[in-house]
Write the structure tokens for this entry.
Amino acid sequence: MKKVKADLGYAFSKFLVSLPHRVWRMEVGFVKVLVATVGTTSDPIIESIEKNDVDLIYLVYGRSFPGQHPSPLDVAKVVRDRARELRRNTMEREVPDPEDVKSCVDVFKEIIKDLAGKDVSEVIVNFTGGTKTMSAAAFHVFASKAPSKVVFEYVGGVVRDEAGRVKGNMVIRRDYRTAVEELADEVVKHLEGYEFFLAFKISEGLPDTYNYRFLKSASKAFWLWDSFEYEEAMKVINEIGDGAEAFVSQQVFGKVPENVVRLRRIGNRLVRAMRGLRKCQGEGAKFREGDGHLVPLEFLANAERRLKMGEYAEAVLRAYRAVEAAVQLRLLENNVNPWSVNWQQIPDHQEILKQLGYSESPPEHLTLWNGLQLLSLISPIRQLEEVKDNLQFISNLRNNSKLEHGYAGVDEENAEKSIKKAMEIMRVLLGDERAQEIEKVRIFA
């Protein structure tokens, strides 16, 4: 049933992406907005409405001056009627005093508040009409507070009537990056640089719109994943997976959407394997999951991320843990529980214990080294001496580091060697075919 639901969700996301863009936006809840300041001519605003594929239009006009003709209110009605012909939704806002800065700013701030409750993908601000004060206020408010991409637009033309109003016109657009967009770019940059916790904390400052909710959730998921909290991470990934498919097609948020998709495809398999391993450790259960190899591979991918971040000692510790996890898995696959060894069930266990040096009081729990030795006796390992040499290199670095038993530092060269040697061990213990699946758990690679 879960697979059917996942397949349906994936198919639905593909269907949405195939729809015409305006219909697709409406289906997923996106809103593209036009905010236009209205003066004494309707042509430039109607031109903007006809050329811009928007879902919602705010017409902002000032209270009429004595003797002003036509009044901005009358112009707004003309624009509204044309918008309705085009089946566009309109809302009107009056500025009590169009020459007063505070009065203008307050109206545009109210529009920002209104938009905060909608999933806005883009705001086009057309400041052609109205007073200069209204135009300045519109620019100021939307440049500093808009929760989405903002395009500032001015419509001008060489053909004008006797009052100087534009008749034949042209459209000039200027993209303007908002502070929110800059913040989102910072989040993406930190995610692509493996600084997941920092990205997560910064993302908390993003507005609660559809696009940015996705980025905030993705940041949280990658931080949880990188912290070995795979189940919690996948709860988030599964919630935003369909949206990620759509964002990949839109090419927004850098590599974030494609890596959400990557984890969605492999993460649930890894979570099931982790659950199986926990049952083996806590309940002495048999290991029956076919994807157990993903766990040591992800541990090693985690070590690679530490290396790229310059955390060399941490990289070595994780490489060591990855090898240990691979040995534990291979023991389980040979019906030996490394956390609760039943020696009586191992064929020729007396002889094996002698070779391990345990003639009396055999251990109930296996360390990495005696686990590897036992594994080599019950399931011969090709290139065993090479595996031991590689493990000894990693083990020495780990044990002598400040994070374990010594005070030595770990440099980049040795950390990189540790990871390469751990990968060589993976190929021997897991087999080349399974070891190659590390590509599936590498994120932002």
Remarks:
- The longest helix spans residues 256-283.
- Residues 292-405+413-445 form a domain with the Four Helix Bundle (Hemerythrin (Met), subunit A) fold (CATH 1.20.120).
